[in-house]
Design a protein that fits this description.
Length: about 230
């Protein structure tokens, strides 16, 4: 019977540390017994640091797993990262940005596997963090906030909460309108997408005239972006 995985992992770690101590001690022995002890300690530390680096590179990359369509596999490392980020952010507020990005990524994974309530909870928290960060540094996080709001709106719409979805979409539209003034090439397509979602939400709420106006503006933006429409 094969030994359990935890036993294999621990035996590997012990072997690496022992090898580092032996190599370090052997090198130190050339200069004397005292240096052998120092070398063994240094080898132990070096082996430990090296094993941490190797394990870090072997750890699953949730973003790659998501891109590969393996959302279920991405969830476990994302849960760990979010938990770790929370602890860091509680002590160092600068890590709140990292927490927000990982929450949004986790929301995507949860939505893909069909857990919409938890996905909404994660992206709502991410949007709240980006709102707070935008208040402190307006130019840096506004686009991230708009993206989180659109993801939040999509989940709300899937859960038939169209009024709340519309509110999130309108907040995103306001952000994209401001961003478009400085960088139309980047943000006009995103504004058109947000307007299309606004039209859908308004349609579900039977606000047909407003829905048509939003859809028309989205179409106009897309038409103006066509190469044939440029002078």
């Amino acid at each position: 019977m094969w030994p359990p995985r935890w036993a294999l992992r621990w035996s590997t770690k012990v072997s690496i540390l022992a090898a580092g101590a032996v190599v370090g001690g052997g090198v130190g022995w050339i200069w004397g017994s005292l240096w052998a002890a120092v070398g063994a300690a240094a080898g132990l530390v070096a082996a430990y640091a090296g094993s941490i680096i190797v394990l870090a590179f072997q750890r699953p990359n949730p973003q790659r797993l998501l891109l590969a369509g393996r959302a279920q596999e991405a969830l476990w490392p994302l849960e760990l990262r979010v938990s770790y980020d929370r602890k860091l952010a509680a002590k160092l507020p600068t890590f709140r940005e990292v927490l927000a990005y990982h929450l949004e990524m986790m929301s995507e994974a949860l939505q893909t596997v069909g857990n919409k309530p938890r996905a909404l909870e994660a992206v709502t928290e991410a949007a709240a963090i980006f709102t707070e960060l935008t208040a402190n540094r307006p130019g840096r996080y506004t686009a991230a906030l708009a993206g989180a709001l659109l993801r939040q709106a999509a989940l709300l719409a899937d859960m038939s909460r169209h009024g709340e979805a519309l509110a999130a979409i309108e907040s995103a539209i306001g952000i994209y309108r401001r961003l478009t003034r400085g960088d139309p090439a980047t943000y006009l397509p995103r504004l058109a997408e947000a307007l299309t979602r606004q039209a859908d939400a308004l349609g579900y709420l039977d606000r047909i005239t407003e829905a048509r106006a939003a859809a028309a503006e989205a179409d106009l933006i897309r038409t103006d972006m066509l190469p044939s429409a440029r002078p």
